[in-house]
């Protein structure tokens, strides 16, 4: 007999005759076998047209009257192929013995332990409710009365241990500690969606996590990656907005450097009009960071002046565009003429080379000695007093990074005399509820600007997941402009 069964990444199995009692010890013990690929008709194996759990199944041609079997029509056909409702455990079990056909439409369960097997017997007929066939032990199946069964069709049952690839931080250190490894698929909670990732973006926070300085929040994926785009592959039972097949991008707690990620429904955004699925990965983190700090906290508004340090970064290139959309005069600092020229093309009004100019003096010169209204700073300590000296009366300094160091010495009188406000914020450490508010505000206030073509993605280079170390080296070299993306 030719091999008829193949589980994901597993070798084929070809027993001469298979019943469920044989199926369990021989196949189910293989941790990644998908039972939804197997059908047995009078002891003869039947191979479904598409071997994917919950996506396709094929009934034997002899099953012609689904109503008499108690089956919902979409779950039974005459030799054809139909999509199943969901890839869940124990959706259908069809049993046959000498007296005819019996079927059970079972309630899907999401058990992870998978040892629950129940039986019901009437006139020596066994009806098996397989709530979960994820058991590693054969005991729970081997003791059941399978001898009277002639046909068993399992429509949807998932074995334990589906795998994906993700970038793992093997130890704290440099980019070389990033390694692509096989890991367990994410578990999807009731209020989450599972995204098959098309692209993920690199952020400075990822490098800090790699060095052990920015750990992921408790209960979140250990892999780096704070934003992604992709296609919804599964939805939790409480999810109402999204459905399987939707193209989306998302703000993540972590886990973006992978083939799949589970994320709360409220942190998922539609792909902006006119933007490719791949490029959409460049928006969630920068948009949520800039909008939540500069606009929601510092209340930057039309007619004001705004200084962005690191204008050619992912944050900077986005901040320039969204500020110009809202009628703000934009100042930027960058370290090369090439980067300054790029910022100018994006709409920056005043471009300052911090390596050759004193940004405080230039800001004062360009504002008639007043200073700017808001500063977005990623340097921290070394720039702190100089930023205060660059602010106008009632100016707001918003600190989102400490690339220059965490320590500073300041003159408090400069705060008092000009009524200055110092703010600081991180995005990853915010609560899910707070992130949901930010994501909602971004969709309302930023997505229209993207749809109008006023804010465009700035993507410098793409890397494969296996090249994550190279991507981190490029980011830390500061030789890029805009965002760097990882592709599975």
UniProtKB/TrEMBL annotation:
<keyword id="KW-0560">Oxidoreductase</keyword>
<keyword id="KW-0521">NADP</keyword>
<dbReference type="InterPro" id="IPR036291">
    <property type="entry name" value="NAD(P)-bd_dom_sf"/>
</dbReference>
<dbReference type="Pfam" id="PF00107">
    <property type="entry name" value="ADH_zinc_N"/>
</dbReference>
<dbReference type="GO" id="GO:0016651">
    <property type="term" value="F:oxidoreductase activity, acting on NAD(P)H"/>
</dbReference>
<dbReference type="Pfam" id="PF08240">
    <property type="entry name" value="ADH_N"/>
</dbReference>
<feature type="domain" description="Enoyl reductase (ER)">
    <location>
        <begin position="173"/>
        <end position="486"/>
    </location>
</feature>
<dbReference type="InterPro" id="IPR020843">
    <property type="entry name" value="ER"/>
</dbReference>
<dbReference type="InterPro" id="IPR013154">
    <property type="entry name" value="ADH-like_N"/>
</dbReference>
<protein>
    <recommendedName>
        <fullName>Enoyl reductase (ER) domain-containing protein</fullName>
    </recommendedName>
</protein>
<dbReference type="GO" id="GO:0070402">
    <property type="term" value="F:NADPH binding"/>
</dbReference>
<dbReference type="InterPro" id="IPR013149">
    <property type="entry name" value="ADH-like_C"/>
</dbReference>
<dbReference type="InterPro" id="IPR014189">
    <property type="entry name" value="Quinone_OxRdtase_PIG3"/>
</dbReference>
<dbReference type="InterPro" id="IPR011032">
    <property type="entry name" value="GroES-like_sf"/>
</dbReference>
């Amino acid at each position: 007999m030719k091999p008829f069964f193949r589980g994901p990444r597993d070798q084929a199995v070809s027993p001469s005759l298979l019943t469920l009692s044989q199926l369990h010890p021989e196949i189910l013990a293989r941790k990644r076998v998908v039972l939804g690929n197997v059908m047995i008709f009078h002891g003869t194996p039947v191979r479904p047209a598409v071997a994917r759990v919950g996506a396709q199944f094929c009934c034997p041609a002899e099953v012609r009257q689904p109503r008499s079997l108690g089956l919902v029509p979409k779950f039974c056909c005459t030799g054809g192929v139909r999509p199943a409702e969901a890839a869940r455990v124990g959706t259908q079990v069809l049993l046959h013995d000498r007296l005819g056909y019996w079927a059970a439409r079972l309630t899907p369960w999401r058990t992870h332990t998978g040892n629950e097997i129940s039986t019901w017997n009437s006139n020596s007929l066994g009806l098996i409710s397989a709530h979960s066939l994820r058991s590693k032990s054969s005991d729970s199946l081997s003791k059941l009365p399978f001898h009277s069964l002639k046909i068993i069709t399992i429509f949807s049952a998932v074995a334990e241990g589906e795998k994906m690839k993700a970038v793992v931080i093997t130890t704290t250190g440099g980019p070389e500690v990033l390694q692509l490894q096989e890991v367990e698929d994410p578990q999807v909670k009731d209020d989450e969606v599972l995204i098959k990732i098309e692209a993920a973006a690199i952020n400075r926070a990822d490098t800090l996590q790699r060095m052990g300085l920015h750990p992921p929040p408790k209960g979140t994926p250990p892999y780096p990656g704070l934003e992604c785009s992709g296609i919804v592959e599964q939805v939790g039972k409480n999810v109402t907005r999204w459905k399987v097949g939707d193209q989306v991008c998302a703000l993540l707690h972590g886990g973006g450097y992978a083939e799949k990620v589970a994320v709360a429904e409220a942190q998922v955004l539609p792909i902006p009009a006119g933007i490719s699925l791949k490029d959409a990965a460049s928006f969630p983190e920068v948009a949520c960071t800039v909008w939540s700090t500069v606009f929601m906290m510092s209340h930057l508004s039309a007619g004001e002046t705004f200084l962005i340090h690191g204008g050619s970064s992912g944050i900077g290139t986005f901040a320039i565009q969204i500020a110009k959309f809202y009628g703000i005069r934009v100042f930027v600092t960058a370290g090369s003429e090439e980067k300054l020229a790029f910022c100018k093309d994006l709409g920056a009004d005043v471009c300052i080379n911090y390596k050759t100019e004193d940004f405080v003096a230039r800001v004062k010169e360009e504002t008639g000695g007043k200073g700017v209204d808001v500063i977005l700073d990623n340097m921290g300590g070394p720039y702190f007093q100089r930023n205060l000296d660059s602010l106008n009366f009632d100016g707001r300094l918003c600190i989102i990074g400490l690339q220059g160091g965490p320590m500073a010495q300041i003159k408090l009188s400069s705060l008092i005399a000009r009524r200055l406000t110092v703010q600081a914020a991180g995005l990853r450490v915010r609560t899910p509820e707070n992130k949901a508010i930010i994501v909602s505000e971004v969709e309302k206030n930023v997505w229209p600007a993207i749809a109008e073509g006023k804010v465009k993605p700035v993507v410098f280079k793409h890397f494969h997941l296996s090249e994550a170390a190279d991507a981190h080296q490029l980011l830390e070299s500061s030789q890029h402009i805009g965002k760097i993306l990882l592709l599975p």
